[in-house]
Design goal:
This protein has no helices and 19 strands. By secondary structure, the chain is mainly β. It folds into two domains: 2-104 and 174-181, Immunoglobulin-like, CATH 2.60.40; 108-171, no CATH class. The two termini are 35 Å apart.
């Protein structure tokens, strides 16, 4: 398992996120016919040594010539890791090195007089109000007319309100990139 210490200097967030390839390597082969198998990049996302659900993207490591767009990195696929942190992204027949990027959910910008449902996530309107936390709605309601004075999770002060909505502070983790990873395919003789 490789651990990656994020640079939280701008946010003063010492955070540890790790990427761990599942047993058997980081490539899973899905063979559907006698042709060359599709290539799949797979792994496990962990936050503070716990499995985590995150949006995961696979990009070409090297810029690609894309007709009409010029030379740039190519988005090869996306997935959301499961509750156990595992993910699998089919990159097709792509042969080059791949970057895998895990992104925490930043939510929507908080808005006044807005109905929020349990599970919604918001962040402060004013970037100077951002303290490294986003806010999950844990009690449905309507936000107040004024943006709240945002709080941080100190272990005893994680929950607050905006109007009738109850919000719980949750640390936001910066995106994590791992790579380059070389997907590998196999020939099938079905």
């Amino acid at each position: 398992m490789a651990d990656y210490i994020l640079d939280g200097g701008d946010l003063n967030l010492p955070a540890l996120i790790s990427y761990e390839a599942p047993a058997g390597g980081n490539v899973v082969i899905d063979v559907a016919s006698g042709e060359v198998a599709a290539k799949v990049v797979a792994g496990t996302i962990q936050v503070n040594d716990q499995p985590a659900q995150r949006q995961v993207c696979a990009l070409s490591f090297d810029p690609q010539n894309m007709p009409g767009l010029g030379t740039q990195r190519k988005m090869l696929g996306t997935a959301t890791s499961a509750a156990d942190g595992t993910f699998s992204i089919n990159v097709g027949a792509f042969n080059g090195p791949v970057l895998v990027i895990a992104v925490d959910h930043y939510g929507q910008t908080w808005e006044p007089n807005t109905t929020y449902s349990i599970g919604d996530t918001v962040h402060p309107v004013d970037p100077s109000g951002y303290k490294g936390f986003v806010y999950d709605c844990t009690g449905a309601g309507v936000s107040g007319p004024d943006e709240p004075h945002w709080w941080t999770d100190t272990g005893s002060n994680a929950t607050g309100t905006s109007g009738t909505a109850t919000l719980t502070a949750r640390q936001y983790y910066q995106p994590l990139c791992h790579g380059p990873i070389i997907p590998v395919g196999e020939d099938s003789e079905e």
